[in-house]
Amino acid sequence: MGLTLVQSITYWLSEHPSIVNFRWSPTQSWGSTWSFVITAISSYVVLANTLNLVLALIKRRRPLPLGPIPAIHSLAMALISAVIFTGILLSAAAEIRETRWFWRRTRTTTPFQWLLCFPLGTRPSGRVFFWSYIFYLSRFLHLFRTFFAILRRRKLTFFRLFNHSILIFMSFLWLEFSQSFQVLAILLTTFLYSVVYGYRFWTAIGLPSACFPFVVNCQVVLLGCNLVCHFGVFLLHFLRGGCNGMGAWGFNSVLNVAILLLFLKFYLTRKKSTLEVAREDDASSMMLKDKDT
């Protein structure tokens, strides 16, 4: 029974004809045009700012009750991320297994090198690009967290809007230009997303949270891993005579650096404000003790 279950999962996540025969194209893939992605990102930014402005104009300061919606969203995102992680892992293993004979013949590629560096001329079709497409679509579901934050009357930051918008755009570029490194990037991202959203669901239903900034630490780990892998792609590009989609990779690298700098600024500002609040609390407690004495 266990073997049958594994075979069934393998079939539905890596061997189904829709996955094997997938092809990224404007006629076959929803949301695969430049006009769509630009319109979608612009609409997201406009809607988020409009909702935030409306709530500010009506002087709504208290959070709006959202009930179980954020918890359900977190659970759904954790499950979707876990499925994408499993699907692209099985699909990558199948692609490596089926093309290993060619690598042995040419002696130019290893499985790990392929994860970082697609050969020149790679087209966006087949198993791994199917899951890259699903990952691209799942990015739009992440946008709901922005609207949850606004309805909870949390500050709408430039970092949040920029980060979500750029992540959608980068996922689009991965498919549009068959960019190298995307398989490993999706594996890292979906694994950490399944953990992070699982943790958010855990805390949303009232279970105890970690004694340290769990989500922020996961984001730091992801950014660090991406930075190391980008360096690996850069080396392989020159050592192997070229990786596919390096123009998009260079643009993505610039955007990743921008996200990293904004994240560090946001993290340091948040840490500074937390320290200031702690100092104020300590000062207040000392004043109360002086009064008592």
From TrEMBL:
Pfam families: ELO. GO terms for biological process: fatty acid elongation, monounsaturated fatty acid; fatty acid elongation, polyunsaturated fatty acid; fatty acid elongation, saturated fatty acid; sphingolipid biosynthetic process; very long-chain fatty acid biosynthetic process. It is a multi-pass membrane protein. InterPro entries: ELO_fam. GO terms for molecular function: fatty acid elongase activity. It comes from the Eukaryota. One of its GO terms (cellular component) is endoplasmic reticulum membrane. The chain crosses the membrane at residues 34-58, 70-94, 128-151, 158-175, 181-202, 214-236, 248-268. The keyword Lipid metabolism applies. It is found in: Membrane. Keywords: Fatty acid biosynthesis, Fatty acid metabolism, Lipid biosynthesis, Lipid metabolism, Membrane, Transferase, Transmembrane, Transmembrane helix. This is Elongation of fatty acids protein 3-like.
